[in-house]
Write a structure and sequence with these properties.
The protein has helices spanning 11-31, 43-58, 66-89, 97-122, 126-148, 151-173, 195-211, 225-231, 235-249, 254-264, 269-307, 311-330, and strands spanning 179-180, 184-185. It starts with 10 loop residues before the first helix and ends in a 5-residue tail after the last helix. The longest helix has 39 residues, at 269-307. By secondary structure, the protein is mainly alpha-helical. The chain has a two-stranded antiparallel ribbon with strand order 1-2. The chain is globular and about 65 Å long. It has twelve helices and two strands; from the N terminus they run ααααααββαααααα.
Length: 335
Amino acid sequence: WRLIPGKSSSHRELERKMFRLNRCWAACKKSSDIRPSVRKTDSMSVQADLQKSFMQRYGIEIECSPAIKEIIEWIEQAHNLILDVLSRRGSTFRDKTIIKVALTAMVDRLDAHISSAVISSAANLHASSEAMARVVIESAVTAKYILQKDTDSRMMEYMSAYFSEQRKLHERINDDSGLVGNGRSVYFPPLVGQEKGLDFREGLVEILFDTYEIRYRHDAKLPNVADRFRAVDLLDRYNAVYRPLCAQVHSSAESVIHVTLASALEHTSFKANQVAGYMKDAIALSLWSIFHALWFYLDVLESFMLCLKEREAGKKCAGIKRQVQRKIDVFAEYK
């Protein structure tokens, strides 16, 4: 607020503004009929309500497999936990408000990402679901790393590293490499010439951290992805889950090889067997990746609830996570 003439930079005034924002946000979430809460009816009706709620959230109608329906139910249960906590707490984020708001935004993005992965799989866009699952896992590990300990300083590192990366992007934009053909820029127009805006935004972020007595460093760095996995003791999942999904995302030749072999051997029984086997594996891989992404999402959500001292909500997240892990264990028998 010091950057805006006439505005006080007092801690109390900034808190009042943040609390008003939180109240408005919670009220909007609570009153929204796009994300309805679950009615207390029999088990079958609750499952149907959860599935309907998910479809209404995104305005879609897709016939889903039993596995996808089960995943949707778990996502909606987790989503309703978030809404319940936010609506009850309202303006009670009185300790380190900026950190809690930032963490809530990270969880909200995870909710959207995991939903995108499920919708892609339900629509038979299996390769896209794997890509989104990878996004969920990387984002979740970052959030888990921030929540693990030293949350204030790690959130500062996360934001500071973003501004550093954006400045590197602007350095590339400002040279001639962004021009093609007759001089047209291939960069998104709002990105060009926004260095001053970037400085202004970082200045505001620095003031917010300073207001909550969190030291902001412009040279702060976030550990690389592997080190984040290592820090939260999930390096085994980095090697077994994240890296294979990275290979799928970065133009894996697997699907191209399957189609090419099937086409080359068109007049043999190999083609039918190869295509059928590939489709079976593609569906299984899509579900496998979503189950793992959902596990990571619930793991972060559990940590987030404990950070907010919402122990009952944290236990519920842990319970859903155990159910998801049992599904993951089934894949050990897949052939």
